[in-house]
Amino acid sequence: GTGGPRAASGAAAAQLRQRLESELEDIRGAGTWKSERVIASRQGPHLRLAGGGGGACEAGGGGEGSRSLPQVPFPCFYLSVPAGIINFCANNYLGLSSHPEVIRAAVEALEKFGAGLSSVRFICGTQSIHKDLEEKIARFHQREDAILYASCFDANAGIFEALLTPEDAVLSDELNHASIIDGIRLCKANKYRYKHMDMHDLETKLQEAQKHRLRLVATDGAFSMDGDIAPLREICQLAQKYDALVFIDECHATGFLGPNGRGTDELLGVMDKVTIINSTLGKALGGAAGGYTTGPKPLIDLLRQRSRPYLFSNSLPPAVVGCASKALDLLMESNAIAQSMAAKTQRFRSKMTAAGFTISGKDHPICPVMLGDARLASVMAEDMLKRGIYVIGFSYPVVPKGKARIRVQISAVHSDEDIDRCVEAFTEVGRKHGALP
Ligand code: PLP
Fold this sequence. Notes:
By secondary structure, this protein is α/β, with parallel strands linked by helices.
């Protein structure tokens, strides 16, 4: 038999356990403990939590298991779902994570191409669907080529080291995602950090960086903690003036920002000025997993030779490739999906502002309700759940100390009624805890 877990014996193991327990206690004491709620249904606007939270969901909207998938067009397949827990904290911006066609594409890919490759790409892990998806991603972004990774975290970990040498410089927004920060840490280029979206500071740093061979400005297209959008037009102008390249991480933009959902570069009219895009397949594009880099062909060719997370990690599983590929088909067939979210975002932002809350960012479906205090964010989120609204409090170290918030994320498949229920719950809970007068 396998028995239960075995604790390692010895003084070093005991000392480690004690140290870890004390560190965990510190996190609890600081009120920044992150606990995970367990979902017992599919991802969607309405959920059922394990242990009975929320009402059951009907077919298509998050129902568990093997019910047959409804044959109704996007986004109507969610509308028959009775209200249970309403989910406002997924990156499921377009509601594609449980879209029937996306699920069907995954099942077909699984059946035809198997569970996985048991290999990295360059040994025996490249299938026709991987090549097709890379071609589709490049076409979607109007770039020359694309390369898949297991995640965008990996894409960010792989690019800077492969591209930049000690002769080069990278200029990074101070609030860039952790994976960009880590990717930059791994490279040997000269590092400059500019103040968040501060073009004056970026210009100063670009001037300092003139002595290097190559300059790369790296920024999130949309910042996930604040819901603000990088001033890409200005960044590209400065890049042109100081002969720099521009890299954007589009995880919170791909699929829904811009007239055709191409992202921040399309929204701001600079598709021909941004050289490199990294993004994820794990948010709007079906939500399974995976990431990619898209850009000039020689760069993609180099990444296939040199990028460590690509070279030394398994190929994306066929089912995951199937999901993303179908999500991109849906987006390229019509821009209706990409456009479907803006009015809902506007409804939430204006109603919450009228209620007296401060919502960070502008026009983005990430709507951070700014509260300041970590405990307040945490207890309010718990109380929201009691009212059937699933939101999460964010506090240090995910956001700076004193800037705790509840991050609400709007999805194309939320109904107006869902949004109004969320605003009502916030108003009640905010009054109860003194966040509103
Ligand atoms: N970049 C940004 C801006 C993100 O928000 C995330 C995910 O949270 C990532 C990168 C990592 O993406 P993935 O989940 O595909 O690793």
